[in-house]
Each structure stands twice: as C-alpha cells, then as structure tokens.
User: Fold this.
Amino acid sequence: MRRRRTQNKFSLFAFQDIITSVTGIVIFVTLLMSLELIQRHPKSAHAETADLIRQLKQQLIQNQQASELLQQQIDAENQEIIPEAFQDATTLQQTLTEIRELQQRVSADAAEVTTQKSETEKQLNEIRKSAAERRQEAKEIEDLKNEIAHKSEQLKKLEEGKRLIFRPAKNTPKTHWLVDVSGKTVLVARMGVKSTPQQFASYEEFRNWLIRLSPASDYCMVVLRPETARTYQEIFKMLDQQHISFGYDAIDDQKIVIDPKEGAGF
Assistant:
C-alpha cells in the first residue's frame, strides 16, 4: 500500500496579523494627530497674528518717535541759521565787489611796497658804494699826505745839506752798494734804488753778508766817518779777502748818506 508524503504548509496568517495591527496603529495615531491639529491650528494662527500686530504697532510707535526727533533737530537747526545767510543776490554781489576792490588795493599796496623796497636797496647800495669810494679816497689822501710829509722831510734835509747823494757809475754791469760805517755799526743800501737799508750790529754780521757778494758783479762804496779812523782798515781787509772791488770817501758825522726808508735811492 502506498504511503502519502506529509508536507508542511506555509502560513501567512502571522504576517498578515502583524501588518494589520501596525496599519491600524498608524491609522489611529494619524487620526489623533489630525484631531489635535484641527483643534490647535485656529488658536496658533490667532496668537501669531496678535503678536505680529503688536510688533507692527510697536514699530510704528518707534518710527513716529524717530520722526518727531528728526523734526525737532531740523527746527533747531533752522533757528540757528542767521538772517545774513539769506541775503539777496544784490547784497551778495555788492559784498563780492567790495572784497575784490579790497584785494586790488592790497595788491597795489604790496606792489608799491616792493617797488619802494627795491629803490631803498638800490639807494643803500649806492650809499655803501659811495662810502667805500670815500674810504678809498680818504686812504689815498692819507697816503699822499704821508708821502708829501716824507718828501718835505727829505727836501728839508737836502736844503740843510745833511743828505749826500751817491750815484752809481754809468755803463757798468756791477751792482753798487753804499756802505756807511759808524763805530761798530754798518748800514748797507743799494745805490740808486729806493729800498729799506740793511743794518748790521757788528763787523762779523757785515762779513757774513759780504760772503754772498760776487767779485764779478758787485762793487762797494765805503763811507768813513771820523769815529771810524781806527777801524776802517778792518773793513778794507774784509773786502780784500772777498776780492770785492770798492772805493771809499770820508764825510762828516752830521751828514746823511742812507735814508732810513728809501736807503740810497734818489
């Protein structure tokens, strides 16, 4: 006898039960939420509208206060404006004309001051130049006075016969020196040339000067005074030792042969 194979049947009852239960719960929750929303929505909209109206009223009050404050500031500024600021065009034009005329007068005065300054500086320069010229003229006059006084003194000495003039020999290439021996003092000057004479306090200094002379180009004219009668030989010996050509002449103690300023010049 054949046996039937027993087969296990698959049942969806449990799954359908779960799905049905969940769907029911979701529908129930949805209904509850819808009911709550229906009840709460009018109250929420009304509250939001009230808040918005309240905020708008507050903003309107603030704007009105700000407007009043600005109007007060404008009024205060209008009160501070002086009437002169609203002068008419004629008054303003007249004021501008007066200002331009004043500027022109100031410019003219400045130009005149500049011109006067230039003229004053020019006159001052001329005065300075004249003063410098006068100082130069005064110096020249003073020099002329000194020269006249010196010439007068020389002339006076010549008139009194105290100054003897020794002239160098002509047509000779040698330099002529006039040697005035007085005691132990020797005075030397170049003949025919105005120059300050050289003075030697001793014969030794005179010897040192002779060393620089040349026998070929120098000549000495020795003037002897009475007080040198015992010492003139020493002078001649010095000249001979240096091979210097010389001549001599005897004069009085009161005679002058070498000028303190012009030497043996004439």
Remarks:
- The first strand starts at residue 175 and ends at 182.
